[in-house]
Amino acid sequence: MSLPAGVALRQQQADEAAAVRAVVASAFGDAVVGDLEAALARRAGSMAYVAVAPGGVLGQVRLTWGWLDAPERLVPVLVLSPLSVAPAWRRRGVGRALVARAIAAAGEAGAPLLFLEGDPAYYARCGFEPAGPLGFLRPSVRIPEPGFQVVRLPGHESWMTGALVYPDTFWEYDRVGLRDGGAEVARP
């Protein structure tokens, strides 16, 4: 996936937190998702990548460690959330490039699985599959079954099935699944 001219991807830097928070809030139309992103950034081992242009940050993706409650043992896995692209930069390949970078980073980090909740039509084009038919259980019944998706990475083994356990930060900000009358998941 090629990026628009002048756009580059790289690891997020600490001094970009305010710019990232603004992009996340504008992408989701919800300041609480910006607060969630800032809280996830404080978690040990969390990773983030940004899309930047001469004007600054225009997109961001975060990876946070969670667990798979597998029959053998708890398995550290990664969760992709949030993925945010400034509205003016949507539908130009920025989101898909950020997702591709996140998948590569998850594999480089040794995670066997990368989970997310989001639009199945969008994320299927990025390599994600419906997680339920593969033996994975949603961390909440509020996550629509089609939106619960996974990429199996090179470290995945066949016994690694079970329930995804989100880190507590997602629960603290009540950003798991959809509440009645809740907004749709933002599309990058």
Structural commentary:
- A hairpin with a 4-residue loop joins β3 (56-69) and β4 (74-85).
- The longest helix is centred in the middle third of the chain and has 15 residues, at 94-108.
- Mean pLDDT is 91; it is low at 183-188.
- This protein has helices spanning 17-28, 31-41, 94-108, 120-124, 168-172; strands at residues 8-11, 47-53, 56-69, 74-85, 113-117, 129-130, 136-137, 148-152, 162-165.
- By secondary structure, the protein is of the alpha+beta class.
Annotated CATH architecture: 3-Layer(aba) Sandwich
Overall number of domains? 1
Helicity level, as a percent range?
A: 25-40%
- Strand/helix succession: EHHEEEHEHEEEEH
- Main β-sheet: number of strands, strand sense, barrel status? 9 strands, mixed
Briefly note the structural class of the backbone. Answer: alpha+beta
- The counted number of beta strands is 9
The shape is globular
Radius of gyration (Å)? 15 Å
Strand content: 25-35%
CATH superfamily: Gcn5-related N-acetyltransferase (GNAT)
Highest CATH level, the class: Alpha Beta
